[in-house]
Prior knowledge:
Blueprint: E1 5-11, H1 15-23, H2 25-28, E2 35-36, E3 45-50, E4 55-65, E5 69-74, E6 79-89, E7 92-100, H3 106-133
Amino acid sequence: xxxxxxxxxxxxxxxxxxxxxxxxxxxxxxxxxxxxxxxxxxxxxxxxxxxxxxxxxxxxxxxxxxxxxxxxxxxxxxxxxxxxxxxxxxxxxxxxxxxxxxxxxxxxxxxxxxxxxxxxxxxxxxxxxxxxxxxxxxxxxxxxxxxx
Length: 148
């Protein structure tokens, strides 16, 4: 069975701004991870860190098509994630995040689907708030305890 997890959101900014927000770690760190070792580029591996959660993961960039697609492989277990960008209008971009090639079964798969769906939904919500309103929403940082 092939499972694909999908989260999506309309962001009211131009496609170049939205796409760049996911490629540029200076911007992405305002709504997603704490830090990164570099920009996303095809064939490159970067390290993303979430300081609060003491989490670090290697992100292997499998493909990038400017203003269309970012495809990565990451995590434990290692899975693929596609970030798809669709221009709706000059100031509207629809973003779809698909997580797939999940090497789990049974209860472990169910737990992964719940966690991944919630996580990517939170990332898209945070990106929308940040890009549309220039607010650092702290949604990822505030998702789980401790809240100190």
